[in-house]
Amino acid sequence: MDVELQLTVENLLSRYVHAIDDDRLQDWPGFFTEKGRYRITTAENYERGLPLSIIYADSRAMLHDRVSALRHANIYEAQRYRHIVSSTLVERIDAHSARATSNFQVVRIMHTGESMLFASGRYLDRIRMNGDGGEPQFEERVVILDSRSVDTLLAIPL
């Protein structure tokens, strides 16, 4: 086991969910490489190899656009998330990249104080390990939802 790789990947995942949970969405695109891909799909579509995604972005620029839309254009009920992420399985692909798999649950807290389990599933990640002290970044993050239905607008990234 490569302990340094494990800790580096777990740190990336922790910083990612804390940025979302702390409503620092402007930081979210920075967790991805310039051509990083972000996709939310259902377990059913993923298992069937179907490309349909609930959310799909194939560059950091698209993620910046999404944040801008969330902040300035979209209208949705005030809410926040709290992520709970499982232990992470990490596998080194080569000297510069790794794969990671983890499970998650997201609790949605409404402005009224009502809390509910909003989403559960798993993250499948391909991570670029930037050398020379650079932070690792997602080359691809596939969010696979256990349920094929989302009860309301999926506004905030998972």
**Mean pLDDT across all residues, rounded?**
92
Describe the biggest sheet? 7 strands, mixed
The first-level CATH class name:
Alpha Beta
Class by SSE composition: alpha+beta
CATH architecture: Roll
Indicate the proportion of strand residues: 35-45%
The gross shape turns out to be globular
Distance linking N and C termini: 28 Å
In oligomeric terms, what are we looking at? single chain
Number of strands: 7
Uncertain parts: none
**How many helix segments?**
3
Question: What pattern of helices and strands is seen along the backbone?
Answer: HEHEHEEEEE
Care to describe what's here?
24% of the residues lie in helices and 41% in strands. With 158 residues, it is of the alpha+beta class. It has one domain (3-145): Nuclear Transport Factor 2, Chain: A (Roll). The longest helix has 19 residues, at 3-21.
Quick tags:
single chain, 158 residues, Nuclear Transport Factor 2, Chain: A, seven-stranded mixed beta sheet, 3 helices, 41% strand, globular
SSE order and pairing:
Blueprint: H1 3-21, E1 32-42, H2 43-48, E2 55-57, H3 60-72, E3 79-85, E4 89-94, E5 97-110, E6 115-128, E7 137-145
Parallel strand pairs: 1-7
Antiparallel strand pairs: 1-2, 3-5, 4-5, 5-6, 6-7
Summarize the model shown.
Helix content is 24%, strand content 41%. With 158 residues, it is α+β, with helices and mostly antiparallel strands.
